[in-house]
């Protein structure tokens, strides 16, 4: 992003009850999108993202790093051509400690190029007697091999729901 870009909050929603997915749309008129998800879950599961309800044409790389009480963290790099991209798959999620997704989608509305998304994920599950028990950090780069403008984003859970209290903030970014 060039200096002088401005963020505009498009929407904010907090789940009153559990949901298997988060559907986002109505974000026309901007250059880029930023989606920030603060979520709660009870158990581990991979999550997925889709654009325009398409389950094909995705390709990506992700760097996965986690550590637990073992002082040596595990780091891995993966390549995927999954129908919908997977991330955050190994964290023992918590219904009381939040995890986070920060999703950046540049030039989402253009119709002349493939689309990219950059996703950062972070989670720390801890308790009062065991702070920082388990930490996971992922950094993902996705390419959606479609030139259509992105008009909807769907983030859904592979095995369980996003718990009540999960919050999604969507920002539009325009070049000044």
How are the SSEs placed, and which strands pair?
Elements (H helix, E strand, L loop, with lengths): L5 E9 L6 E5 L6 E8 L7 E5 L6 E10 L6 E7 L4 E3 L11 E7 L9 E13 L2 E15 L7 E6 L9 E8 L2
Antiparallel strand pairs: 1-12, 2-11, 3-8, 3-12, 4-7, 4-11, 5-6, 5-10, 8-9, 9-10
Question: Could you please describe the fold and organization of this structure?
Answer:
This protein is mostly beta strands. It has a single domain, classed as Jelly Rolls (Sandwich), CATH 2.60.120. Helix content is 0%, strand content 55%. The protein is built from no helices and 12 strands. The strands form 2 sheets. It has an 8-stranded antiparallel sheet, with no helix packed on it. A 4-stranded antiparallel sheet has the order 2-11-4-7, with no helix packed on it. It is globular, with a radius of gyration of 16 Å.
Concise overview:
By secondary structure, the chain is mostly beta strands. Helices cover 0% and strands 55% of the residues.
Write the CATH architecture name.
Answer: Sandwich
Question: What general form does the structure show?
Answer: globular
* Tally of discrete structural domains: 1
- Helical element count? 0
CATH topology: Jelly Rolls
